[in-house]
Every structure is written in C-alpha cells, then in structure tokens.
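Extended Data, record Arsenite methyltransferase
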Amino acid sequence: MSSCCSTQDGCSANGQGADKIHDEVKEYYGKKVKTQKDLETKACLMMPSKIPAHVRQALSAVHPEVAARYYGCGLVVPECLEGACVLDLGSGTGHDCFALAKLVGEKGHVTGIDMTDEQLDVARQYVDYHRDKFGYSTANTEFVKGYIERLGEAGLQDDTFDIIVSNCVVNLSPDKAAVLREGYRVLKPGGELYFSDIYADRDVPEHIRKDKVMWGECLAGALWWEDLIRLAKEVGFCTPRLVSAGLVNLDDNKPMKDLVGDIKFVSVTYRLFKLPLNTVKEAAQVIYNGSVTGHETSLKFDAHCTFQEGQVVEVDPELSAILQESRFADDFTVRPASKKTKADPELCCSGAKGVPTNPFEGPLEKESSCCGPKGCC
C-alpha cells in the first residue's frame, strides 16, 4: 500500500489547494453547521463510554450553548493537568478549552486557536462566564485566530506549552505534516501532543477527497494511520502511542456509506511526546506512586500499558525516557532494569506486543455520542 503523502492530498496540499480547503471548512463550520443536529454523520460526535468522575464534572460545567456546538471524536483530556499550559488546535467554540481550564486550575492556562470567526465569537463570549463558574480571580483561557499549520503567525512561540490537544481537527487540515511540525516547535521539551482524530485503514481515494461534505464530516481528510506514524517520527516525536479507538459507523447515512465503499474509518486518540534532545533511553523498572488526580489506584497510559499503584513494572527504553522527562516524572519512582534472561517476560509495552499504534488491531472500543447541551451523559 503506497503512502498518501504527496502535494495533492490530505498530508500536504499546494497553496491554492490548501486555501480552498480552509475556505470550505470555514464555510462548513461557520455557516452550515450551527449545532450538532446539522452534522450529517456521527464521526464528529464521538465520546468514550467511560469518563473519569473529575473529568465528567468539568465537562458538565461547560455552558450549554458551547456544549451544543461541540464537534469532536474523542476525549482530549490527558492525565496530570494541574498547573499546565495547554494549547487546543482547532478549539471551535471552546468546549474542550473550558473543561481543561477547570482541570488545570487557576495557575494553569489554556489557549485555543481557530480559523473560524463565528466559532471564536462564541468562545470569547463565554470566557468570563467560565472564570466566574470556576471561582477564578482572572480568566485562564484565551482564544486567538489563526491556522494550525502556521502557529507562528498567531504569535505562538517555541517551547511554550506543556500539552497540546486537538479534537477531530487535524483531519480538516490540508497539510498534516505542517501541523505536526508546528506542534513540535511550540511544545516544551518533555511536552505532549494528545489528540483525537479520524483515520482510515488505507489511502482515501481522490473522488472522496474532492467531496466538500466529506471534508466537513472529517472523512475526506482522514489519513491512512500508517502515515501518521511515519510523519510523527520524521518530525521528531517519539512513537505515537495508541490510547483508544472506536469504529465510525456510517449506517445512518447510506449515500456516504456507498461513497466510501469498504474503507473503514476509526476515531483514534494518540499521545505523542517530545523528548529533550540527546535524551538517554534505557530500559528501567518503574513504580507508579498513585499521585495523579482521578487515577490514584491505576493509570492507563496507552492501550497496552496500565500502571497499578505500587507495582514494579519493567518498561522499554523509550517509555522509560518519557516517564522521566515529561510531567509524569514526579509520579513514578525509577530504578535500573533488572538483568534479564531469555526466559524472562518482555518489557511492558515492548517486545512481541510492541508500542500500540495500529487502531485496527484488537477490539475497538464502544463509543457514544452523548455529549450535548446538557453535558456528557
């Protein structure tokens, strides 16, 4: 199967092609889609069925008008958020930003960037509402206009953010490689890109990529998942780690289902870490100390690896480096790996299992589209 990354497709479009896609997406989400009911599929209305209680509480605090305009394909709320500086790529009306503003606390900060005026107007309207709702003396959210492929034009500097999130937006970009490069640039060393997006099990053909509605519904711009893995490594990120995946069901839209044929699409959450340059990577034993809010007894790090509080776990060199160089450093005790023999089991998240990357391997999680004006069910 060949790579889809050329100058004429969803990885990188040329100047005129990119401008056209931007204009069509702005038209779709600025003029056509006013609430969730205006979407033609559920691809942009997916949420995990299991949500931690403290996250559910933050989501329920979002203003109903903002929640009614939520369009996302996952839960972009990583762990260990207190005091973090967060950037949301394609923040829309601010749904995820406001929930994250509650979770980072008054000492943290959340910046949302979006290219659509109509959505930015709604987000900015409710900044003070959420400041008061959370009991903060000053607002810890701001929204800037700009393109996620060109963050520098919006004034976003190198090595600024602890975490970048994005919810079903990267697929809308005509230049995914530029999005990853810019994200890598503005992340601090040790920072993380934690995002949900739509991916395909193969290259999406040209006749689908030319369909305006399919672009707006997050399907035409979906990458073949293997291209993401390659692009991320080329930019400098660690191996993307699969957190969760859910199949996109098009049964309720026969014309679209007929158009895509046997192509499968999934809603996927990945986490990508930016390690400091020249980081030494060595296998190690780690012990989770149970200090992450909402995850005191166990911490699910990705689809293969869940750390139990107090349990000694052998981890591979890359994961060892991630845990020591990221915001999780204070949540783990790290000690040298034991001397292994051929009879010993493989390290956590390595060996035969490998780092989880393929969203089509193993059972797909059930997803629900219950996030609406009344909050998440």
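Summary. DSSP finds twelve helices and 15 strands in the chain.
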